Amino acid sequence: MKQLLRTNDTTSIAFAKALLQGEGIDCFEIDVNMSILEGSIGVFPRRLMVAPQDFERALRAMHDNGIETDG
């Protein structure tokens, strides 16, 4: 898996996941439990991961919709 997005903004993660699902790209959100443990005050960012073979297509989808990524 490759990291596509890392953010404290839960709405950005939700939007990115919806975009990727619309493009038929599987994604996986990690660090969710850590975020919950810290009380959801946004200190620990969540990460959105995609398969290496989908990374370039996922990057394009994010950039086309104005979402800044780590790639």
UniProtKB/TrEMBL annotation:
InterPro entries: DUF2007, N-reg_PII-like_a/b. It comes from the Bacteria. Residues 1-64 form the DUF2007 domain. This is DUF2007 domain-containing protein.
